[in-house]
Amino acid sequence: MGLESAITFVIAIFIFAITPGPGTFAIIARALVSGSSSCVTLCFGMAISDVVYLFLACLGLATIAENYGTVFTIIRFAGAIYLFYLGWKMWTTEVKMEFAKERENPKGHWGGFIQGFLISASNPKVILFYIAFLPSFMDLTVLSMADIIVAAGLTIVALMLGLMLVAVFAGSARKMFRSERSMKRLNRTAGSVMAGAGVYLATNG
Fold it and tell me: Domain locations in the chain?
């Protein structure tokens, strides 16, 4: 992959990252409730999941997605149910301002990473994107492991830039909410967004 192709590749992945979908909806919901800094591990989990799909596409395992569509359907609906559950939890959680302040620096980093990984992994459109996208930038039949590693690195950088940009914008809107009443409304808005992400994932397979 030459320099020009690499730059174009990064720009395309960046645009893919900020395109509305279950991942961006989940980031918006979390950033509204807990601030943009809480989204770092969530975004990283999504990026790593995407890289796994990228490796699968590069290694010619796209046939798995084609021949085992039922498995991907089950995974997609499981992810949708999980997102809807998270939305319900946000909607019903009692809000106390001191607790809300503590959540700005959540301790469950692994929880955020796993959540992000599962959200991206449960969306089979991600692997379909890479299957259709990669041939525009590289010949998959002559790829070396070094080529794949470079593509993976560029993907992580572009995804983290795009996803964290979404988180920062959503987190900045959170600063307008200071009372318990407004935080409750914010929680319910975020919960609705998260549940909507689940509905989107379930109905757009």
Answer: 37-203
Pair 162, 16: CB distance under 8 Å = yes
By CB atoms closer than 10 A (0-12, 13-18, 19+), residue 143 is: middle
Q: Identify residue 94 by its one-letter amino acid code.
A: E
Buried b (16+ CB within 10 A) or exposed e, 95-131: beeeebeeeeebeeeeebbebbbbbbbbbbebbbbbb
How far is 119 from 85, CA to CA, in rounded Å? 13
Q: Are 23 and 163 in contact (CB under 8 A)?
A: yes
Measure Cα distances from 191 to 12, 30, 42, 87, 173 in Å: 30, 9, 16, 4, 16
Cβ neighbors of 102 (< 8 A, separation 6 or more) are: none
Entry field: residues in the chain:
205
**For 17-70, how does the pLDDT look when each residue is reduced to its tens digit (9 = 90+)?**
887 778 888 888 888 878 888 899 999 999 999 998 888 877 765 555 556 566
pTM of this prediction?
0.69
How far, in Å, CA of 144 to CA of 146, rounded? 5
User: With 50 as the cut, is the pLDDT of residue 99 above it?
Assistant: no
